[in-house]
């Protein structure tokens, strides 16, 4: 069934293998309206968010040069492959599946629908919380550049960031409405990436020999390596591909493939550049937030941190949009975004949702551990395990024995990786909890 853009009001029912109905509501948000180019920028905005400033510390430091470089390249390839599997199933069974849980429910049934929904929203909630931590860290970095009185603490900046994110979320009704803001996001990303790259090159040339050895005891190295693997997965994947694909114009599969190729060509090069150069310049002492490591003119670093803050506000809206879509659809928020009922609903509900995100961000500002746990418990299952198994089940009769074996190997391997990464992340959180207090100023 081809869905046209606009708001659809009917309900469809997807029946699982046990003939128990899963009710799938049509969305109150705009769909089928965006070009593949715009969707490509949505995907690229996520991959080149301010998180990229931490990858030299959270990926390269635990892995070292050879495993780190190979890991990033392999993660790029397997992420593109896994995302393409999900994209090809968008119109499976003669209908469009505009939500991840809708696709899982159609293939597996009611239980998978609920489990996928839970995994996805845990994933997105944690990503949103991480963005608010990043935005707060960028604001604090600006403050420290001009004042050393330490009156303002990180939790205060996180609260300010949450408020700004809420204002932006209230102002932008749905994902397709970002449009011009995606161009702004790209410019902001280039500013902090170029500044981090140039200043890191300068520091690297002037610095003495760096230590590139992996720090820690043997046990610590094992756990941090596993955690870094989860960060690799986190770097390239959204966990909400069907929701993004829902906004694209027909033909949805071929257009989404163009958007994915755009993301994994133009999008990854800046990320590679700032990650590798940051590690080259500072070695094992690389900070988990690169702009706090570089030396340079105050105004340049301030500009870069302002750009990181503003871009984070835009990027967060992408990952919060599935929750907004769910709430708007459930409560029938449609029509003019400026209607009193619709505006007051967004103020109350979206503001309330981001208030919870902000509280969690201020309470537990441990960014590296946060990324590891997110990758382990949600991104691994959604991006690799579920993607491969859904494709295996949906295309079972069309796959050769070798292809089936390949997908089963992926399911088993990433299942084990997910378990190992979750254990590693929990260990890191337990260790850090002995060092940091809640509402810590880090």
Automatic annotation (TrEMBL):
Taking the record's annotation, the residue ranges forming a coiled coil are: none
The annotated topology with respect to the bilayer is: Multi-pass membrane protein
The reply to whether Amino-acid biosynthesis figures as a keyword in the UniProt entry is no
Q: Please provide the record's keywords in A-Z order.
A: Amino-acid transport, Auxin signaling pathway, Membrane, Symport, Transmembrane, Transmembrane helix, Transport
Q: Where in the cell is the protein located?
A: Endomembrane system
InterPro entries under this entry?
Answer: AA_transpt_TM
**Domain named Amino acid transporter transmembrane: which ranges?**
34-425
- Main localization category: membrane
Where would you find the membrane-spanning parts of this chain?
Answer: 35-54, 61-82, 121-142, 154-172, 178-201, 259-282, 302-327, 347-364, 370-387, 408-430
Q: What does this protein do?
A: Carrier protein involved in proton-driven auxin influx. Mediates the formation of auxin gradient from developing leaves (site of auxin biosynthesis) to tips by contributing to the loading of auxin in vascular tissues and facilitating acropetal (base to tip) auxin transport within inner tissues of the root apex, and basipetal (tip to base) auxin transport within outer tissues of the root apex. May be involved in lateral roots and nodules formation.
Q: Which family does it belong to?
A: Belongs to the amino acid/polyamine transporter 2 family. Amino acid/auxin permease (AAAP) (TC 2.A.18.1) subfamily.
State the protein's name.
Amino acid transporter transmembrane domain-containing protein
